[in-house]
Amino acid sequence: MHQLNYHHLYYFYLIAREGSIASAAKLLHVTPQTVSGQLSTFEKQLGYSLFDRVSKRLYLNSKGKLVYQHASEIFQKGARLVELLHADNETIDQTFVIGITDAIPKVLAYDFVHSTMVLSNNVRFIFREGPFDSLISDLALNHIDLIIADRGVAPGTQLNASSYFLGESHLSFFASHAQLSLHQDFPHSLNGVSLLLPGIKSGITLGLTSWLEANQLHPRIVAEFDDSALLKVFGSEGFGVFCAPSAIADHVADFYNVSCIGEITDITERFYAITGKNRAQHMLVNSIVAEAKALLG
């Protein structure tokens, strides 16, 4: 095969994106038989099968994932080109997609990004929130340019990505104003009180529970939250003591109307930026990473 057939590639792209031949056929306004035939022709031209067929369902194999990754970028750029050609505002010249994991405090993400946004008038920023693994999958498919997370990419991973350590913060504990007296004997005052924990996927949960055990502290765990903002809302309503990075302690106290009852330095919450290696020298990536490091420094 000397030249790629983009018509066939588009059929494959829609099948992979939509999850089935029938769904792709519906979008294309053709019969499933036509779509299936185009896929078979494409696979024969490539010399590889792109899907594993299990119980009448299609699953991308390793070759299929590679082709889909590149096809996604090709057709996204094509759609963006059409959008630019028809745009009334000719100054908009790119989009930049930022993924934020559930565990990252939103105000901290805002602090990392807002200066770059102010200086980037010609960029449309798109923010997506989700679990770490889901965002990493989107990064691998070039659907996301940068991820802000509380952990980096695991060493030895096959993902073509770079992790940047942004900095770290100690942990502060907060309680409703009615429980302000807890600060007098902190951290021993945590014994027996209701405590709200971040979910097990958070980068600090294991360290926090180990710290409680090591210090023979036995609070009553009443709830766990994957979403850090939801955790703070319940804490502000008096459901329990909760913790947040000391870097945003003033914001948490003011915004959620709670009091800081103490800080621990034995545990630090770490923050990372993750980007595909093809984006490593991107101006916006460098700007956000530099801003975040300055804020946490």
Automatic annotation (TrEMBL):
Query: Superkingdom of this entry's organism?
Result: Bacteria
The UniProt keyword set, sorted, is: Activator, DNA-binding, Transcription, Transcription regulation
Q: Looking at the Swiss-Prot or TrEMBL record, what is one Pfam family this protein matches?
A: LysR_substrate
Q: Does the keyword DNA-binding apply?
A: yes
Q: Which SUPFAM superfamilies does UniProt cross-reference here?
A: Periplasmic binding protein-like II, Winged helix' DNA-binding domain
The HTH lysR-type domain covers which part of the protein?
Answer: 4-61
Query: What does the sequence similarity comment in the record state about its family?
Result: Belongs to the LysR transcriptional regulatory family.
Which protein, by its recorded name, is this? Answer: LysR family transcriptional regulator
